[in-house]
Structure formats: C-alpha cells, structure tokens
What we know:
Elements: H1 18-27, E1 31-38, E2 41-52, E3 58-67, H2 76-89, E4 94-101, H3 106-114, E5 118-123, E6 129-134, E7 144-147, H4 153-158, H5 172-180, E8 185-192, E9 195-207, E10 210-220, H6 229-244, E11 250-255, H7 260-269, E12 272-278, E13 281-287
Parallel strand pairs: 3-4, 10-11
Antiparallel strand pairs: 1-2, 2-3, 4-6, 5-6, 7-8, 8-9, 9-10, 11-13, 12-13
Amino acid sequence: MIVRLKPAEDQASFIEPNDRSLAESIFLASYQARAICAGETVVGFLMYYRRVEEDGTCAVWLDRFMIGAEHQRKGYGRAALDHWLAEIRARPDCTAIGLTLVPGNRAAQALYERAGFRVTDDIDENGEQIMTLAVEHPAAEQARLAAIDRDNWQAAAALQVREDQRGFVTRNLLSMIESHFTPAQFPYAIYASGKMVGFTLYGYETIDSYDLWYIARLMIDSRFQGKGYGRTALAAIVADIRQRAPKAEGVVISYVPENRYAGELYKRFGFLDEGTTIEGEILLRLPFQV
C-alpha cells in the first residue's frame, strides 16, 4: 500500500518515491519508517532517524513525510505530524527536531511552521532549507529511563562515577554485556533535561516459581550527582517493575558497606535493612503495597 501512494503531480519533485524510502529504512539501521493510517486505510508515509551527539543528547530528523494525493485536504497531514511530534518530544534524550524543505514547497512549509518549526539560514548538501524545532525540557526535570540501543550505548559506556566511588559499581559496559546474555535483565540509560545522566540494570530471577526482582546496578555520572536524579531514577525503576510485574511483592538492592551515600539514598527512598548480606554487600528490600 505504501509503495502505491503518490503525492499530487505538482508535489512529485519535492519528495523521494516511497519505494526508495522503504529501501533506505531496510538498509540504514538508524532510519525508522511509519505508515500513516486513517482507520484501516493507509493514507501516507513518514520516515525519520536519530543523530546522537557526543554528550548523549540527540536530534531527530524527519526525512520523509507525505500524504497520498487522494487523501490530501482532509487534515491527515496535520494530525499525523502532531501525533509524531508528541511521540518524539516525549523522548528524554531528544533536544531538537529537524527537517529539510525543498524551496517552493509552500504547503509543506506552512504545515511545519504551524507546528512550530522555523526556517534557518542553513542549506543542506542538496540545496534544501533546514527547519528546526527546539524540544524544551523542564530545568528540574525528573530522571527518566530510555532503552539502551545502538545509538546511545557508547554514551552510556562512557559515564563515570567519582574516582572514590569506582570500586563500588561495575563498569556500565560490562553491565550491558551481562544483560545481553541474561534475558531477564533490562539495561536503561537515565536521562534528565535532555542529557544522559546515569545508567541502571535491573531484572528478576525465578526461584521456585517465584520471581525475585532486583536492581543490579544504579549509577549517576559524576557531573550530575547531587541533583536528586538517583532518587527519581529509583522511582522510575520501581514504576517500570510494577508495570511489568503487577503481582511483584517488592524489589531488592545491595550496596558495598563503604558506600554510605548509596545506603542512605536507598533507605530514604524506603528500602528496608533486614540484616541480610549477599557476597559481602548489604541487601535491602523495598516492599510493594499490593
């Protein structure tokens, strides 16, 4: 269906054919292709990709966006763009959205400007105008989780705790490798205000048909410590566990006795010290109210 969609004749020079776009999405791993549907009818197509910056933030680029000629002037373009923008704005690592515009495509420019995009003075290598939309994050935004993927794993691996804390936590790269071979573990980057600020790894172990949930790793990069992100990251982890396992009775976490800061953080959050140790670490339990 997508391949058969065509723009209006006077728009054909403004966008690549959908079959080419689909081929690019197959062979270029960072490209994501989406059908635009009205009910059961495919009315359009869009494709986008992420470009990750050195600090772990990213810009998302809307590379293709079209509504089939027979479905135009029905509000589908505006509705689809608004829906997609809401999804992208919700990403904790996204700080900007960009696109390019063929000069003379006034209808598209009006649509994008209505959504908040602004024409810049920059021109890309194809002679197209670059339009951008800033994604604002609250100054004191709480920490949020985002899956580790091929775009952000290197930034996550580069995060470091303070020098005096390095004996307390396993390196993030090793944690990511561990999770690859342990299906019941979930690695996440921690973001706040559009920046990657930390890393966590949690999961469960089935013991006699009982799933014991645990937080294996939690770290905040040295540059972002002391801002409350550890506590709000714990809240996000607990929320995710409760969504994954509504019947879970709680979650456990452990820390090296010398890591007093971590112990105080966990206890302030509500974890209980029941006098249990595991491999020399103090084990705490957070019971859930079921």
